[in-house]
Amino acid sequence: xxxxxxxxxxxxxxxxxxxxxxxxxxxxxxxxxxxxxxxxxxxxxxxxxxxxxxxxxxxxxxxxxxxxxxxxxxxxxxxxxxxxxxxxxxxxxxxxxxxxxxxxxxxxxxxxxxxxxxxxxxxxxxxxxxxxxxxxxxx
Length: 139
Ligand code: AMP
Ligand code: ZN
Hints:
By secondary structure, this protein is of the alpha+beta class. The chain has one domain: HIT-like (HIT family, subunit A), CATH 3.30.428. The protein has 3 helices and 5 strands; from the N terminus they run H-E-E-E-H-E-E-H. Strands 1-2-3-5-4 form a 5-stranded antiparallel sheet. The model has no long low-confidence stretch (mean pLDDT about 95).
């Protein structure tokens, strides 16, 4: 399904021009217009899925291999020493475009800082309760 109102559906379908790095029958890979670092790319499925919870399993199985291929190409082409694979689900998690996408962000020695979380101290009892309740919800 494609959503005519969705900007990433329109970009993935080629209706809106983008800096396309790669395209096949399932995906278009573009450069992000608000990059976290030089070469920040987005993997967009051509079909509309709101987030990872909705993503088709066949498409899901192809996403990580493509991200790995893209990251390897970035290391070769851009001279980055590594890359982050980031994928946001829901507003509170930082998702701003509600069409599933994967960020592939090149990282350079002494390059731009990218926000990371502050590790909290885990309480063993709470870990036990949390693992039980998530485990139950997965069944
Ligand atoms: P997220 O916050 O995970 O939903 O990521 C959305 C990303 O899409 C952000 O990094 C934006 O900079 C990027 N973005 C939004 N609109 C466009 C566009 N038209 N072309 C390229 N990147 C875009
Ligand atoms: Zn869409």
